Amino acid sequence: MNKVGMNMFVWTMSMDEDLLNTFTFLKTSGFDFVEVPVNEPEVNSASLAKWERIGQQLGELDLAVQTCTICGPEHSLISPDAAVRRAGINYLKHVVDCSRAVGSTILMGPMYAGFKTFTGKPATAEEWNWSVAGMREIAEHAHSQGVTLAIEYLNRFEIYLLTCTDDLVRYVEAVNHPNCRAAFDTFHANMEEKNIGDALRKCAPYLVHVQISENDRSTPGQGHINFDDVFTVLTEIDYKGPIAIEAFGPNPPELAAATHIFRPMFDSPEQLAVDGLAFIKNHVIPAISVDNEL
Asked: Per-residue pLDDT for 43 more than 90?
């Protein structure tokens, strides 16, 4: 059965505060892993020590961990400035190192370009080539650290290099490295795909991570995304990888500003986590298990 995790974005962006109580709550609630954001302002050894401490906390709870990240304009792999592109490569290598330090074997996110960094034009062949070359170098470093990159496309309002499964598959195939694979987020797919099931089928050969996220970023199962179709296809393609719940709320404020969420989506992060886990385990996973036995 797939391992189910909870993304920490409804509590934090930085992981700088003491989150032991939250980790303990998620463990006792039945989660298998947490998905933690790695957004370090500087590349230094102190940040590695921080992630080692967090990894030790999680290990003592027997709670597994994965990592996610985004890049700002100062680390964009498609910047016309070669120095910015090099800074992005070095930064992402450091994020890989932080991932290894915390105990993560999957680092997911839209690492290929700057988040909300637009030119007002379609991506150029030159931007594509810059990103592919940079990602191949990062993937080689990730290989040395035992980390797999799970590339996530975003919707057109957040990025412009990869905005659909067709883009994602073409990108992973262009990078052509075993440590560069695909992630799938149902929120973005709901906006950008003609058919979410067909999109999942297309990225199946490369899929290593799935984020379950409702159409309004609230509790999974309480919006209009057809999750019956999502999980039916995941069974069809024999997906055995991790599944994480991702949601956003009015806190932390810097994340709410970036995602434009200014009204409550749920009663509390804890309520969302418990209800989302129940939705996945009680309504989807048992049905899949029965289907597999027939």
From this structure: no
- Other Cβ atoms less than 10 A from the Cβ of 177: the count is 18
H helices of 193-284, where? 196-203, 227-236, 253-259, 269-278
Residue partners of 121: CB distance under 8 A and separation at least 6: none
> From CA 234, how far away is CA 240, in angstroms rounded?
8
**Which homologous superfamily is 4-293 in?**
Divalent-metal-dependent TIM barrel enzymes (3.20.20.150)
CA neighbor of 186 nearest in space, from 226, 240, 158, 159: 226
Domain ranges of the chain: 4-293
What residues act catalytically?
152, 246
- How many Cα atoms within 13 Å fall on the side-chain side of residue 43? 12
Closest CA relative to residue 235, chosen from 204, 196, 191, 257: 204
Greatest Cα pair distance, the chain, in angstroms, is: 57
pLDDT digits (tens, 9 = 90+) for 139-158: 999 999 999 999 999 999 99
211 Cβ contact list (under 8 Å, min separation 6): 7, 108, 152, 183, 184, 185, 186, 187, 243, 244, 245, 246
d(CA 149, CA 178) in angstroms, rounded, equals 9
